[in-house]
Design a protein that fits this description.
9 helices, alpha/beta, globular, homodimer, about 35% helix
């Protein structure tokens, strides 16, 4: 039996998983992301964690297929990372960095793309031929998987549907520097921004005015309780997501769209809202594109990492 | 030596090419698209043309790899065509239809996707790893090629960047039934529509008011001669194309964008105009995406057909 590791590097923790070649998750754990001591420490920590786990489980070096690793930033097919702001890392090769430390085969990708790969094989996308994953959290990200392979893109930015332009007249800048990106309206932060704008522009009574902190969760809760203003704001959010996904489907035309990320805890109402607006913006022949919720939650990245190293080669 | 055929079915003619396995074009010819007698006649005509050519060139049946065929409509990976309005054809399997008539292996695709594949291997995209082709003619189409394979999409509509929504407030309908598609502003027809709208809305003198027929070519000619109004309309067109391509690149992130189709005869000014606006809308990490003109003209489809049958299998 062979084994593989999935590693998902986040801003505060690194999630790790040890898998059997047949896909069974044997062990899952986290270590802190120590960025304060400079970039190299993380990679020593990861290397130690992976090799230590293999030793602890009695897995011989030659039985390890390798590790697949995701990072929040653009990663190209060769493993080159072009700046990772959250982790205070510049331009470097993630694949080589971890290969030299672990002595294992390494494959690297963007965290959202890895999550997409995980959902494709083991989550909401299971059984589909091609899948677009949409991750709605602090930002809006995504990934496209086709015939078992995730598309990284030449510059490592494939699947970035949060940066499709929705409103070219938007006066505020997106964190990416552009104006009017989908993320500015449909991420957790973007939804709150829209809600605050709407509340400031009217005197309509709304439960949103009473919540101690206006968050995406509060917005969904108030909408669930029938608050008209919250429902109106969410309708706008669904409209933006419907368009961004429809535009994306004109390009990659997947069998299935899987919606994940923290905001997807809102569940079926979110999915229904998106699908309703998608129908308005999608190209007619793709009208039957199916929608599903992600299933792996925060584990999608480690599953995807494992599939990156154990899956079909490019 | 083995041989392959590329067949590009258009509204008025079917273009055919016979290729040697190494990619050399041995013979190229056209036959009329006889739709008036019902759908089946075209396929008999194509079958006769291909088999006749092989016989004429003394190519034995066992030395024919097969034929790759393109049609103006959505075609999925299995060769299913979901309605082809121009050719008065409904739902049928193009692959099986031609396999049963010719006894040869057949692979089928959308005509814009086949043109993309042709340019990737033998034209403006040669040497690139991934390429987005944008075809600007009567409509705006496109195709995405990755590691030598063109993406058809689950519903056969991948690469349809002409139907990315640019202006959700557009009051007129696109031929596809939606509102505000890129094609409504940036196809040859769309450009003329914009120019007419602009001319009707002002009294500004313009050479466009004197041309016997207002066409996309006239628009480029007047702009080339310095006509301010023509330049203004084209600036709008470039802006739309820049956004549609930037949105597409957020999803597929190609190394290279190749611009083809009848309108691409306008050459470098068109390419420069698009690239200028692309820079405004593209995600920062993809800013260095290169642009090039297509090279194969009307032959792109037959080259792509040949590459579909002779290239790497899915």
């Amino acid at each position: 039996m062979k084994y593989g590791f999935g590693v998902d590097i986040g801003g505060t923790t690194v999630k790790l998983g040890c898998f059997r070649q047949d896909g069974a998750l044997l062990k899952q754990w986290e270590i802190p992301t120590r960025t304060e001591l400079g970039g190299d420490v993380i990679f020593d920590d990861i290397s130690g964690a992976v090799l230590g786990c293999a030793e602890g489980l009695g897995i011989a070096r030659q039985d390890v297929l390798g590790l697949g690793v995701g990072i929040p930033g653009p990663v190209d097919d060769g493993g080159n990372v072009n700046c990772c702001v959250n982790l205070k890392l510049g331009v470097f090769n993630l694949r080589q960095t971890l290969e030299s430390r672990t002595g294992l085969a390494v494959r690297a990708g963007n965290d959202a793309n890895l999550a997409a790969l995980g959902e494709y094989y083991d989550g909401g996308g299971r059984g589909s031929q091609s899948m677009l994953m949409v991750t709605i959290g602090t930002g809006v990200g995504g990934g496209f998987v086709w015939n078992g392979r995730v598309l990284n893109g030449f510059h490592g930015v494939a699947g970035e549907l949060g940066h499709v332009t929705i409103d070219r007249n938007e006066p505020e800048r997106c964190t990416c520097g552009k104006f009017g990106c989908a993320e500015q309206y449909a991420s957790a932060t973007g939804m709150v921004r829209l809600a605050k704008q709407r509340l400031a522009a009217c005197d309509t009574p709304s439960a949103l005015r009473q919540v101690p902190e206006l968050t995406a969760k509060a917005l969904f809760d108030c909408a669930g309780a029938g608050d008209a203003l919250a429902l109106e704001v969410l309708e706008r959010v669904y409209d933006v997501l419907g368009q961004a996904i429809a535009d994306s489907c004109c390009i990659c035309d997947p069998e299935l769209v899987v919606v994940g990320g923290g905001v997807s805890k809102a569940g079926q109402p979110l999915l229904d809202g998106i699908a309703r607006h998608f129908a308005k913006y999608c190209f007619h022949a793709a009208r039957s594109t199916r929608f599903a919720l992600a299933k792996l939650g925060n584990n999608a990245g480690i599953y995807g990492g494992f599939r990156l190293i154990s899956g079909r080669e490019p």
